[in-house]
Every structure is written in structure tokens, then in C-alpha cells.
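User: Show me sequence and structure for the first protein, then do the same for the second.

Assistant: Starting with the first protein.
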Amino acid sequence: MVKSEGNRCQRNCFNCPICTAPLSVNTIETENGGMPQGSFVLACAYCNWSSLEIGIQFDKPNNITGQLSKLKNGRVPITSQRGGRHIAAGEGSERRQQRAEEGEKLGPEEQFANLKSFYTSQLNDPSLNPLMTPSGDYGYSSPNALARIMSMYTGLGNYGKKAKAKSTVMREAYGTEEGVKILDPSEDADAILKMKQLGWDGMTSVAQRSAQTHPSRFLDNVRPVATLLRTKRSKRCRTCRHILVKPESKIQSTRFRIRLVALNYVPSMTLKPLQPASTNLEALRPLTTMQLLLTLSNPLFDPVRITLATPSYTPGRFQSKVTILCPQFDIGANTDVWDEALSGGSRSERSRRTTNDSSEGEKQAEAGKVWDKGRNWTTVVLEIATSSLHSLSKGPSTVGANDTPEELEEDEDVLEIPMFVRIEYETEPTGDEGGNVDKGRKEKRELAYWGVVGVGRIV
């Protein structure tokens, strides 16, 4: 189990403060036998940043978080002033100036530790608040506290008859030893002077400052960022509760034990023009009829039967007419290439190459027939009549070449075809656990879904 504090790793996992890439622990010196010795540093393999740039080295290659928490930039050890005596409020100006100089040497962690120690000692003092516990809540479970509360409401006992002693008011923290840093007006002037000396290259960006636990303006003050902890989640099917995605349990592994992605079970669709020389999908001409080749590839190891359906006109303000010449066809199984060669599929491959080498204008598309077919793919023809982007108030015969198009919304001139795909195939049944499955029997399965085929942009 990984120990976490603030949702960050407490081991040796750190990210680069410059480019956020993972940091690795490298040694500075090695012996002749290749064994590491001497000091260790955190190095980035992407931007070549290392902890040497901020003056931090480590004595051991493990427990980097523990070593880093005890070092400042420049390998200065962190010294906390907790447990020191509290200075009276009426101390002289020389002492305050000395405390201000000491406050500059303390980092945010030391200041917070001193502040926490001071208020913990205040809460532990029973003379300040007898009902307050060290954890910060009222001790209603204490017998003495309950007796005092009951006597106040019931009137029993002598609570209230005695003269109550005035309790001491809890005072606020004061001074560096109690976690308060006195503001020094010269800090801003020093920061401006340092900006002029270092320039833009020595300053941190907004992203780099936001990633730091304690943001800093300068690159020499950044520190390695502990890696955020991430979870690995499994996904189940809503209907049958079958596990769809299950990652490996190992932290360093990015593989999946189970990965049933939908793209591995539905056919992939590609679209290209039948006559590439006269059709440009990036700039479709309005009020023209063109033919496109739609190719579907079968990822399954069983032959499938595909049924396509689409509206006669595309939805939207500018409607184009769409016709599928062969809406129902079969696709072969996704078998090995050698199986196709042994079964005589090479002849169909040679005929396909011969057809492609010949002029595509010689072959005419016919309704109810596929255009081309391969081992696990089939190509059919789509016929599209593009619409006009000119004013809809004019009739088709009154639209002129000098007419200006209407104000178009974003991507309104993009031609997209909604298509309903239905898949039917037979496969071997997957019986329940412990059940017997007949090897020769096959079960029929069906899958249907809606998809969108992007064609191009009408100009």
C-alpha cells in the first residue's frame, strides 16, 4: 500500500518542476565495478533538469521524500524553532529586527510547524478553555464537563453559586518562534532587482508556479513536485455486468488484463471519392452529384452480414440527398492472409488489382451490387447530391452565380451523413461457467448502432 499525504506519493516518485516529466534517481559517481556510490540526484530525461541546479543532493537512492523534506534549496538543512520560549509583546525594536531576519531563513514548512506547535500548546492549556480538547472540539464526553452542563440547565448542585474565576483569553501567535513572519518592505525591492538580473529566462511560468506546493517567481527556488496518486478503475457492462476493461494491479504497469474495446467488434468505415481527379472532399461544389466509395472492414473472426440505412436527406438547414446503391451485403471473416491464399482468394486479389489499374470511369456503379470485395472488407457506392449554401428563399432556378451565401454558423457547411449499421453473424456460444457447450452448434448474434460519416466541406 502506498502511503499518501495530500493525494501525492510519499516514496520516490517526483515530477520535473520545469516540464512535469517523471524524474529518475541517478548517481553522480560510480565505482569501477559499476556499483553506485557517493551522492544521488533527481534528473529529468526530457529537459535535462536535475536537482543539482537548485543545489540538492541525496545520500541514499531511496526515501527521497524523507530526505527532501529535511533540505532546502542549496542543501541547507531545515531547522525548526519549535519549543523555543515565547517573546513578550513589549520587546524592543532591535529584537524585532533580529526576528525578522530569522524569519527570512525559515521556509513555509517551518513556519507552519511553529504555528501549529504554538496553537497546540494553547489548546492543551486547561486554564484557557476548560471545555476545549486538544483536537479542537468541546469535550462533551468528559464527566466533569457533562456535570457542569447538566447543573446549568437543571439547577442542581452549586454550579453558578460560586464566583466563577475569569478565564484567561487565548492570545494570538507573535513572532517567528510562534510561526509569524514579520513583513519586510525590502523584500519587494529585492525581488524586482532579481527580476532585472535574471530576466525572463529565470522566471517561472504560470503552469510551473501552480504546480509548486509553495509558488515561487524564480526558477532557482522551484522544487521537485511529488507525483499525484492515480486510481485504476474497471468498467462493467450495464446490461450483463460483464467486465469490459480491467487494468493490471501493478503500479508500474500500464497494461490491461481485460480490454474489450468497441472498436474491436464493430466494422471500421473509410470514405474516398470514386473519381479523385474531379472530386475534392475539402472543397465540395454545391448542387452537384458525386459518387463515393464506402469501405467497411470486419474485425471479427466470423463472416458478417451488414445492413446500412440512412435518411434520404441529411439533417440541418442545408440538406443534401444521399443514396446507398447497395444497402445490404456480406463481409468475410478476419482470417489470416495465408488462409486466403490457400483457399484461392489470390484470384480475387489479382482481379481487384486489375480493376484498380484500369480506369475507374470504365466501371459503372449498379444498384444492388457491391463495388469491390476482399478478404475481410467490402466496398459499396454512395451517391450524394450536395445542397446549395445560398439563400433558401430563392428557388433553385433563381440562384445565380453572383448571389452571396447566408451567414453560416460554425461547421454548418460540413457535410455529414448519419448512418444506421446493423450487423448479423453466427459464432460459437460462450456457455456459462461449468456448463457444457456443443462444439458444432452456433448461435446467431446481432448488433446495431448509429454512426456519423464525415464527407467534406461545401464551398
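Switching to the second protein now.
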Amino acid sequence: MLGRSNSSAIDGDPDCTEVLEDSSRSILMGMISQLRKDMDLHRVTLPTFVLEPRSMLERVTDFMSHPNILIEASTKTNSLVRFLDVVKYFLSGWHIKPKGVKKPYNPVLGEIFKCKYKYDNGTEAVYVAEQVSHHPPISAFYYGSPDNGIYIYGDLRPKSKFLGNSAATLMEGENHIIFSHLHNEQYDVTMPNVYAKGILFGKMILELGDNCVVRCKTSDLICELDFKTKGFFSGQYNSVSGKVKKESTDEVLYEISGQWSNEIFIKMAKASNKSLFFDVKSSSIHPKIIEDIIYQDPLESRRLWSKVTEAILKNDMDKATEEKTLIEDKQREDAKERHLKEIEFNPRYFTLVQGDQYEFKGIPTNKTKAKTDLNHLIFSPVNHN
């Protein structure tokens, strides 16, 4: 049976480091021997021992794990203070990850994930994500909390590449955060890239790297963030730094530094003293409310992948591979049938609006009915006949 053995990394973050057993390493090497540098990995079937037992559609909800930050941000009257809270909110979602080097399931076309949230202030929110395209892979998502006037929408367009002793997932696509009660004030967010290093030799390590931004055009503010991968001889794991600027003049207002997996600090540009911005250890993850699997739609992530997940959690990688293959074969059969019948796939919750851009079908137009309408659209039973 294939498996993995976890070991703590003396010189790094043990949660991001993994040592493969010989049997698992040999399978990975066999797969890698068929690859060439800069090759797109999306069509490559990965062995199950590198999988995180949840879908990428659910992975997006990690950024809804600290809602109090965004709810409080939406109440601030000072645009700069509000902007800093949005930056904090964005940085707060990266520490939620499995141990070792793991990749979420690649969603199949038409797969969906949906959940609800109930907050301490008596308000609620809903979330839905759907795999709207398979080639290229595009995951569209929408979060709405009408009570708080907060909406988040966007898409992920990952592109995976083999780079030799590492593999990269280039996280294309954007997030948009809207505060509807502030004249639809919008924040545009891009993502850092993900690197799995040491896949040929040494310890396998998962790191975030490269630049991304948080921008609010109406406030003329931008935060340029740099997620840094550890150097061979120097540096530390999971480092992030950034500068908050007035975009029109390039004036630096604040500087950010620290580790996204531990403590992040902030200071005014001309100050020497820094203060704690976000502390992983003192944070708590807000729970999602998810329908029991037996009541879920067949294409909902947790039901669709339930047998794969069950096998992975039992460390039965042969069974996990078998169940994963059944899902992938069914996806190929469905694609072939659509092609023969000349049927075009139409997403359930999103509409193709311009080029390859997708828009949520249920964007609220009536404030008083927004919560009811969102719940009805997302959670009403679907007739597949």
C-alpha cells in the first residue's frame, strides 16, 4: 500500500514539509520521468498520496474563515483603516492548510460546493462555487452577506507547470470584495503562486511565492505584497512583506512583514516600532454549515469525492486511486457524450458574460429580498431530469 511518512523539519515549518516513503517516491519519479520542463501539468493525473482530501472549490472558503475582520472593516468610516483591515483579511486565509505537501482535488466540470455561515452579530452569509470550465480549469465563486453589505466574487484559473525539482501552480484569476452600503466600494485582489519543491530529491516543501496586490481604486490605495520562498542557504519559510501605498503618488504609508503561518506585523513607513497585525495562534476558524452528504446533490464536492476522501483518511491509497479513476472516467464519458450530441455545457450558478468572464446569476437587485433570493437560488433542490 502506498503511503507517506511525516517528519518535522529541523530547519523549516513542519506543516509544509514532507518526506515520502520509497514506494511513493518511486511512483512520483516514474510520473516525472515522462514530463519535460515547463510542461503544463493540468492533464497529468497525480497520485493520490499528494492529494488533500477536499476540493479546490471548498479550499476557497479558507478566506472566509475570519469573517469578523471583514465585518469590522465594513463598519469603519476611515478609508485607510478600512483598507488595512481588508489587507489583514486577505492575509488571514493562508495559514489554513493540511500538513505536508498536498494539493486539493481538481474539480470536475459542473461540480459545486455550497455552504452557509451564521455570525456572532446575528447575521448570515452564503457561499457557492462551481467548476465552470475544465479545459482550461476555471473555478467561479460567490459569497454574499446581505445583512452586512459584504459580497465577494471571482474565479481561480490555476496553471500548473513542471520546473525540474519543483512544480508550480500559477494562480491566475482575481477576487473582488464589495461593500454595498459604501456605494459598492470595491477591492481587487490577486493571488500568490504555489510551489512544491524537492519532488525529485530532498524533502518536499510547499511554499507560496511571488507578488500579488490588494487594490481599492476609489480610495487610491494599493498594497503590494511579496510572498517569499526560502533561499537555499538563507531566509525563512512562509515569509511575506508588503507596502501600502497611495497609488497615484506611490507614497508608502505602511510596511508589512512577518510569516503568513505565524505572526504578521505592520508599521508606519517612517516609524521604527512595529505592531502585531495578525496572529495565527490567537485566531479561530469560523465554522461552515454544510448539508449532510446524504442530502447533497450528486455533483456537490463532498458527496462526489466522498469515497476518495474516506480512502485517503484510512491511508488506503489503492482504494483512493480506484475511486478517483471512476470519477475521472465518468467526466471523460460525459464530455464525449456532450461532443457527440453537440450539447454545450451551461453552468448552474454562473453565466458567461464577456470573453471567458463569468458572472453569478443571482446578484441581488432588491436589498430587502437579497437574503431570501440568495438562499432560494443556491439551496433550492435541483431537478436533474
